[in-house]
């Protein structure tokens, strides 16, 4: 476009014919790219939080769209399982829907949501780690070993130690 300036032609009046002209029309405004907190519906994250607290489903959808990738990435890092991470992401947003009214704004919403998601993952891992043992099996083991009070140690080990 430099030749246009030399000839005194207004550069804005010259129509671009390069390969980027069409793609410029498809790109969002610069403000949308630099501000990740600006929602698609034209409301800010803070407005979406307040509306979601009042039960607005569209505001909750805005929050979901703003944070779904971050929550999924966190769940994936913690579980190393894509299917499990998807389930936990869904569970985290269900928990968010139930608990958003408790958000006080003392920290950033993303920090609060991060902690909520971590708690959801940890609860699932705890539940997963607990194995179901039939009651009969636990009483049989106890009767084989003999009754032992809390803090005592195995009898054969005690006799080997000189007690």
Mean pLDDT: 75
Rg is 30 Å
| Count of β-strands | 0
Indicate the proportion of strand residues. Answer: under 5%
Shape: elongated
Structural class: mainly alpha
Identify the CATH class of the domain at 42-128.
Mainly Alpha
Major sheet description: none
Number of helices: 9
Can you put this structure into words, describing what you see?
The protein has a domain at 42-128: RNA polymerase sigma factor, region 2, helix turn helix motif (Rna Polymerase Sigma Factor, Chain: A, Orthogonal Bundle), CATH 1.10.1740. By secondary structure, the chain is mainly α. Mean pLDDT is 75; it is low at 1-6 and 13-39. The chain is elongated, with a radius of gyration of 30 Å. It has helices spanning 2-6, 20-26, 30-34, 45-53, 57-79, 82-99, 109-129, 135-145, 155-160.
